[in-house]
Design a protein that fits this description.
Structural class of chain B: alpha+beta
Structural class of chain A: alpha+beta
Oligomer: heterodimer
Order of helices and strands of chain A: HEEEEHHEEEEEH
Number of domains of chain B: 1
Number of strands of chain B: 8
Distance between the termini of chain A: 45 Å
Largest interface: A-B, 30 and 22 residues
Chain lengths: 208, 160
């Protein structure tokens, strides 16, 4: 029964997101509760939107990234430029918050024997996010990778853009990069163990 | 067709289908599994890889899925055996899962799981992935996750 209710709620939420998507009077609240990916929560009148804020939902504190998308039908290149600049800090803030939260995951955090995420892994992942921020600002784009912890204690970044996919795995000080193009291919272009300072060129690749 | 290894272990042929439990923690908000649901490790013991269930096949399918016809179980039964109400279930065709790696090591093998009681023979696991390169292992993880996304039989519950 609980599953059915959840499914209905999800559909209602999606319907609202869909119907307000192109309405210039609405902005969108995206929530990112601890350890989870960003999800759409609600559409709100645009005047209530701020760039990034902390609010309360269901009486529990959750951090929200609020993305304001006014005038999508008549947007200009200048609008896109301004909006892109506004979104990058929110994306980086969200990534940092998630990765920092991974440090709190103790052994067996997935109830299936997962290893804890070490401080070194988190520190390396945070360094990676700095490179993400630089590339996003340089390219003035607001796409974002998803990030999640893996059962082996690594932190996994995945970035899909068009037919390109970039996977970056961080474990301790080690950074591995793997790339696919097109998406439906089994074989990757390669797997490289790289220095954290070399990650930018791979992010550039997926965004180009 | 299955290949005999020991009296109680057979390699699953390309016509067989297996079931994989999906931990909601390793799935996205839509319940789609990530690579984390198919973690393969080089230090997995040869005889103790990630677990799967063998999906039941009808008697008419016995030629292409003999194990499924003899020992398979439904996904509903599989869901009760893993005993995690919030977890999801995905179906994977063995041939589709291993097509790109034919003869390179990875295979699904039947292995009794005593914890499954009367359904013990419906347990399978993947093995041979230890011989892949790191690159190959991650390619397989990604491939299994993508296949599972296409065949979710039970959506994992939303994360708390």
């Amino acid at each position: 029964m609980a599953t059915m209710v959840t499914a209905i709620e999800r559909r209602r939420t999606r319907d609202k997101e869909h119907t307000t998507r192109d309405d210039s009077l609405y902005g969108f609240i995206y929530a990112a509760p601890f350890g989870e990916t960003v999800r759409y929560v609600d559409s709100v009148p645009a005047k209530q939107c701020e760039h990034s804020t902390a609010v309360f939902l269901h009486r529990a504190p959750e951090v929200f990234s609020v993305v304001y998308r006014p005038y999508t039908r008549v947007s200009t290149a200048l609008d896109d430029l301004v909006l892109g600049e506004r979104r990058v800090p929110a994306i980086v803030f969200d990534l940092r918050r998630k990765v920092t939260g991974f440090a709190r995951l103790a052994t067996n955090w997935d109830n299936d024997g997962a290893e804890a995420v070490s401080r070194q892994t988190v520190a390396t992942a945070e360094q990676l996010i700095e490179h993400v921020a630089l590339v996003l600002e340089r390219k003035n784009t607001s796409t974002s990778p998803c990030v999640r912890p893996f059962p082996d204690g690594s932190v996994f970044f995945k970035w899909i853009q068009g037919q390109k996919e970039l996977a970056v795995t961080v474990l301790g000080r080690h950074v591995e990069v793997q790339r696919w193009e097109p998406l439906d291919t089994f074989r990757s272009q390669g797997l490289w163990q790289i220095s954290i300072d070399d990650v930018s060129e791979h992010i550039e690749w997926v965004l180009t | 067709m299955g290949t005999n290894l020991t009296p109680h272990q057979e390699v699953l042929g390309v016509g067989e289908n297996v079931l994989r439990a999906l931990n909601p923690i390793h799935c996205d908000e839509d319940g789609k599994p990530s690579e984390g649901c198919f973690m393969l490790r080089r230090n997995d013991l040869l005889d103790n890889g990630p677990s799967f269930g063998i999906l039941a096949a009808s008697p008419e399918q016995a030629q292409i899925a003999p194990l499924g016809a003899r020992r398979g179980i439904s996904w509903e039964v599989f869901a009760t055996l893993i005993d995690r109400p919030e977890w999801g279930v995905a179906r994977l065709n063995v041939g589709a899962a291993l097509h790109e790696l034919s003869g390179q090591g990875p295979e699904f093998v039947q292995k009794d799981d005593p914890d499954w009681g009367q359904h013990a023979p419906a347990h399978a696991m993947i093995r041979g992935h230890q011989s892949l390169t790191n690159r190959g292992m991650k390619e397989l993880q990604r491939h299994l996750a993508r296949l599972a996304c296409q065949n979710i039989l039970k959506i994992p519950a939303a994360k708390a």
